[in-house]
Amino acid sequence: MAINSGFKNSVKASILLSALVLVGCGSEGGEGSTGANDSIPVLDSMPHHTSENAFYSIPSPIQLGQMLQRAGATYDKKVLNPTDNAAKYSKLDSKALNLGVYGADLSYSAVFNQPQEVMSYLTSSKKLAEDLGITTSFSASVMERMEKNTGNRDSLLYIISELFLNSNEALKENDQSNISVLVLAGGFIEGMYVGTQVAKTVKDNKAIHARIGEFRGSLSNLIMLVSTVNGSSGYDVLADLKSIKAIYDESAVTEEKPTTTVDTTKKVMTIGGKSNYTLSKEQIEKITELVATIRAKIIKP
Amino acid sequence: MATILRILFIVLIVNTASFAQCNGFAKKSISKLKPYLNTQQVFSTVLLNGDKTQLSSTFYYGDEYRLLITADDKLGKIQLNVKDAQGVIVYSTKAYGTIMWDFNVESSQDLTLEVVTPEAAAGSTEDKSGCVAIVIGFK
What we know:
The structure holds 2 protein chains of 2 kinds.
Chain A: H1 7-28, E1 54-56, H2 61-70, H3 92-111, H4 115-131, H5 140-148, H6 153-173, H7 177-201, H8 206-214, H9 216-227, H10 237-248, E2 254-255, E3 260-263, E4 268-271, E5 275-276, H11 281-299
Antiparallel strand pairs in A: 2-5, 3-4
Helix pairs in contact in A: 2-3, 2-7, 3-4, 3-6, 3-7, 6-7, 7-8, 7-9, 7-11, 9-10, 10-11
Chain B: H1 2-30, E1 37-38, E2 43-48, E3 52-59, E4 64-71, E5 79-83, E6 89-92, E7 98-105, E8 109-116, E9 129-138
Antiparallel strand pairs in B: 1-9, 2-9, 3-8, 4-7, 4-9, 5-6, 5-8
């Protein structure tokens, strides 16, 4: 049922109602209506789900950083977006994507315990967040908490998670879901970029490449997320994400039917089964090159 | 015309309020994820009795997860179905007021979490609606 639930659906219903009322009004006056299509752009700013009431989740930049660290990645400051670029972005899309990029660089620095870089990337993130109208998340008290905890990795990761969650929610509450999706997209692309670049410098990079292969499902979810919003005035992030997915699609995924082991008393579940997301060396090289090209386009001031 | 504008205004205010209300409802549950870190995304929606919503995510080998699903009391007890990449249900929970499960995967998997609200009571003439929020933590 289209009308059964969700903010998006209810807004759709409102738009439909509005259109019907306007059409009715136009008919009474004997003039042609402006049509329901006039109302459609309002849908640009909807929560992150589709008309079927489905949501899509992607890993946070902290999660990506931790996965890479466990896979043997090292910290390499040279691959990150220079912090002084923050003042050079003028377009809204560019600011949103690069807030995601800086959030990922901040997270990567925090995961690898680099306090100086953490504070630099925090300042750059704050600048772009404020430009986007997100003022409460990066408040003076949050900045102070970050400074006080620079030596405590766990606390930093917790505060950063909170900070970006609140920023994301603030954008949604402000009818800027399209912007929040771009922030998420920028963060995911930067995570992929850092992973693929660091893999080139690590002697045993098999585990990192395996992780990059496993990002396939999250990339598909991100594509679904980006598909739910419009509003990109210049750069077409959806087309770029789809071009990365096309390389993944050159090989098939094999998945065994999962089994579950459940402790209903403790409410703990283990989901078994095997899956194979392995990519060929050529696919890894193509993904590395393409992600670098897309990321260069994003960070270009 | 003034009446029409008033109707439009009221409809939009109600929608905005229900979104804000559900968002607030979702954010309250975030603190329950500790010591897990949130994934920086919150998923919330308004459901009716007998309705469902779903969340697709890749769950990665090596990460431990905490899943928290909360629903308005007036909706009744909710149920969770875990579906594999082909949409086949691999596990269904009992009905709970709040669902909080810790879990991990033996290999990275694309899964869908489907939340189902109970049907309205027999003889009930009114569908009840309420917020449902899904948050995921990891460590």
